[in-house]
Amino acid sequence: MMLFPFYSAILKTSLTRSQVSAAILENTFLSDQGYKRKDDKKKFFYGNTSPADFTLETLDSKGHLASFYNGTINGVENEIYVFLNIQAFRYRRIYAVLVIFIVTAFSKLIWDLYSYGINTLFQTTTFLFLGILVFLVVYLFNIAKSFKKKLQSSIDFFRGMLEAETIDAKDVPIIFKL
């Protein structure tokens, strides 16, 4: 779906859970209070990370990475599966509210045209309403287009950082899907 700016990927790595957590932590500026930077290494993310999961927001100034990442780290020993969610919005409900508003507004506009005729198009409130509607549609389209451009580089960044490969859900043992 081109206009849905969310994507899930599963990465398989032969690193241990602590190595995966350390690799993510190495590229993350922690949001914990009192955190001091110990080196001048470039940080790509801001957020929280633990040996079990992570929530990250990109700090990439060049715009090569998607905006938000959530993930869980499952597996044992050297068979680790990272369930990675890449998102353009922090929460899907924000996107859902915008889409519901657009659909509702468009249906109201169609209903007004049907009920009151073409004269409703020439009212100031209808022009304002139509302008807001067009702005939101263009905004969501640009977000989705930008997300689609950044998606592959985001997946490649995590694959390189974790020395992982992308796999299908059917290749993950059932015990690690829970």
- Round the mean pLDDT to the nearest integer and report it: 86
CATH architecture of the largest domain: 2-Layer Sandwich
Helix residue percentage: 40-55%
* Overall geometry: elongated
Note the beta-strand portion: 15-25%
Task: Describe it.
With 178 residues, this protein is of the alpha+beta class. It has 2 domains: 6-91 and 151-177, TATA-Binding Protein; 93-140. Helix content is 44%, strand content 25%. It is built from 4 helices and 7 strands; from the N terminus they run βαβββββααβα. Strands 2-3-4-5-6-1-7 form a 7-stranded mixed beta sheet, with helices on one face. Helix 2 (92-116) packs antiparallel against helix 3 (124-162). The two termini are 26 Å apart.
Please describe the structure with a list of short key phrases separated by commas or semicolons.
single chain, TATA-Binding Protein, elongated, 2 domains, 178 residues, alpha+beta
Concise summary:
The chain has 178 residues and is an alpha+beta fold. It has helices spanning 17-26, 92-116, 124-162, 174-177, and strands at residues 6-13, 28-30, 45-49, 53-58, 68-76, 79-87, 164-167.
Compile the SSE list and pairings.
Layout: E1 6-13, H1 17-26, E2 28-30, E3 45-49, E4 53-58, E5 68-76, E6 79-87, H2 92-116, H3 124-162, E7 164-167, H4 174-177
Helix pairs in contact: 2-3
